[in-house]
Design brief:
The structure is a homodimer of 185-residue chains. By secondary structure, chain A is an all-alpha fold. Chain A contains 10 helices and no strands. Chain A is elongated and about 60 Å long. Chain A binds a DNA duplex (30 and 30 nucleotides) through helix 3.
DNA sequence: TTGGCAGCGTACCCTATGGTTCGGTCATGC
DNA sequence: GCATGACCGAACCATAGGGTACGCTGCCAA
């Protein structure tokens, strides 16, 4: 990940081995081939993300609005983190009509790990009578849009658009506040 | 562009020459080197986008809300079009800490061509007294977020998430309607 | 008619790189 | 003490692919 962040997606196996301070042979012993390295990278990032999300989601207590804010802060942190950016760059570089192995993996782990918790939270709000979410997929996209805007694209293109750690929570709070204008009963 | 769309960003110059039905030598005569081809691609797409935006923006008349809808539809069309996706994939693939030539170009043409018209439209609304936009950059991001949500990322990853041409206008209208809830006086 | 020029097709050069092999070293466990 | 196995460094192989050279064709203008 460090290498891709620094030198783009075109790094060689020799570079990877040097950075990992192991021999090329060991590298090929651990992973089947070059693509296997990237696949493992994607999977590792997905696992890492899962851990961070679970931590963020289970820690949050209190009113629904409070929890939404906590979730959103956590989401913003992950979405603007180096690891996710790098993994997405790799998957996008090889995405095309023919193959989309990595793209599928990234999309899958995303909807499984990120979308689902939000959808169930919306359900809860609907039952409580605090939210009026008819299409939860659409509501999730709206929240994501308000939270990130154009930032993810800019980060992918190499602009340093990551908010400082202090400004994460306020940004998320603002997004949630706006989202609630649209979806609160 | 066709090639990148079909086979990803790793295509060879020989493939490009074959697809363009010219010889490799002619290709190198037209462009300095491989990177020059991609740079030209990015520039050509920027010019194309400019044309489409000018057409969409100058054609729209009527009330501010009407014009916002027209702009947003045009923007949605461009953002989900093959050309923009491909160009962004190329730029993202080579984006890193060291070099970001293409990324800079893409970001620059974007803010120049897309953001500016919107910002001036917001200004107009402020003067009219119909809008209350304090931070126009932020307002633009909100509109973009409501319009696209997660769709751009999914398209980049290879999912076929482009709305049908009939559904463009309704989607844009809905986004604008929501945006106006947040920014109308 | 002829000279120039743009482009074509093909062959070619050469470096970078994915992937393998091999001799040697070190730690572990019997 | 010794077999095992993971790993290292370095050399090696094969191929792909960026970039170039060359000879030929067809077009156009003088």
């Amino acid at each position: 990940m460090r290498l891709v962040r620094r030198h783009g997606t075109g790094i060689s196996t020799a570079q990877i081995a040097a950075e990992a301070r192991c021999s090329k042979e060991t590298l090929y012993n651990w992973f089947d081939d070059r693509d296997g390295i990237f696949l493992a990278l994607v999977r590792a990032q997905a696992a890492e993300m899962n851990k961070a999300l679970l931590a963020g989601f289970s820690a949050s207590e209190g009113r629904l609005e409070e929890r939404l804010r906590a979730y959103a802060t956590c989401l913003l942190d992950i979405m603007t983190g180096d690891a996710l950016i790098v993994v997405n760059r790799i998957a996008m570089a090889q995405a095309c009509e023919d193959v989309s192995e990595l793209g599928q993996t990234v999309l899958g782990s995303w909807s499984q790990q990120v979308e689902k918790p939000f959808l169930s939270l919306f359900e809860e709000g609907n039952r409580n009578g605090t939210l009026a979410v008819h299409d939860s997929q659409e509501a999730f996209e709206a929240l994501l849009g308000l939270l990130l805007g154009d930032r993810f694209r800019r980060l992918l293109l190499g602009e340093d658009a990551r908010p400082s750690s202090e400004s994460m929570a306020p940004i998320a709070a603002k997004a949630v506040q706006r989202w609630l204008i649209l979806y609160r009963i």
